[in-house]
Design brief:
This protein has about 290 residues and is an alpha/beta fold. The protein contains 11 helices and 13 strands. The strands form 3 sheets. Strands 5-4-1-6-11-8-12-10-9 form a 9-stranded mixed beta sheet. The structure holds uridine 5'-triphosphate.
Length: about 290
Amino acid sequence: MNKIRVGVFPAAGLGTRFLPATKAQPKEMLPLVDRPLIQYVVEEARDAGLARIVIVTGRGKNAIEDHFDTSFELEKMLEEKGKNGLLEQVREVAEIMPVSYVRQKQALGLGHAVLQAKDLVGNEPFAVLLGDDIVDAEEPCIGQMMRLYERRGNPVIALQEVPRAETRQYGIVAGERVEERVVKITDMVEKPAPEKAPSNLAIIGRYLLPPEIFTILEETKPEVGGEIQLTSALKTLLSRRPIDGYLFEGRRYDAGDKLGFLKATVEFALKRKDLGGPFREYLKGLKL
Ligand code: UTP
C-alpha cells in the first residue's frame, strides 16, 4: 500500500460568504490572531508528516504565494533593525514545507479544483485539505486519518456531527458505524434539507483519496451552475470501493463563515500564551 505524501489545498474559491473582505484578498489569507488561515492548515499537513503540498490558486490569490515565499526586502530590513524574533518567524513561514502551485482558471467547483492538481500529484494516493476548515486537535486531523488509512486501506473522509437544522450547509453521509469513530459510508447527499438528511454526519474539509479520483473527476458532469462537485465524484468512487468516514478527535471551525471565523478568533486568542491573559480580562469586562 502506498504511503500518503502529498497534500492538495484547493484555494481558488471566491469566498462569497466573506464579502466584502474577500473582494481583493483571498479568504485563505484572513488572519486568525496573527497567522493567515491557510498557514494553520499547512502546519497541520507538516505536523502529520506529509512531504509536500500543492496549492490550487486562481486570480487574485497571489498573496498566498507571496506568503510562503522568501521576502528578501522584509528580511533585510528586520535584520538591519536587529528584530531577530520577527525575522525568525518570517523565515520559518517560507520553510514550512515544499509547496507547488497550479491555477484553476475559473472557479468551477471543488471537484474541478482538485482535478487541476492531477499532474503535480501523479499516480499516488493523496490528501485534500480545505484552508478554511481549521481543526484544533492534539494530533493533526489529517494525521489521525492517515493512521486509519494505514490500518484499513480505504479512502477516508472526515466527518463531524452537526445539528440537524444545519444539514443544508454540508454534504451528509449515510452509513453504518463499524468502530467508535469509523463509519462505513453507504451514500452521500449534497446539502439535504433536515427532513431529507440520512444522518447528521457532515463531510468536512479533509479527505484521503486514491489517484483514481482524477479519472472519475474528468468524467464527472458539472451540476446546474457549471460546478464540478467533489461529492459527485466521491459517489462514483463509492460505487467502486468502500470509503471510510472518520469522526476525528478535535474541534473544527468553519473559518470561511463570519460567525465561525469569530468563534475561532476568540478561542485561538484565549489559548495564546502571550495574549490569552489580557484578552480574557478584556472579555470579562464586557457587559454581555
Ligand atoms: P467553498 O464552498 O467554501 O466556496 O469552497 P468558496 O468560494 O471558497 O467560498 P463561499 O462559499 O463562496 O464563501 C470550499 C473550498 O474549495 C475551494 C475553496 O477555495 C475552498 O477552500 N474551491 C471552491 C476552489 O478551489 N475552487 C472552486 O471553484 C470552488
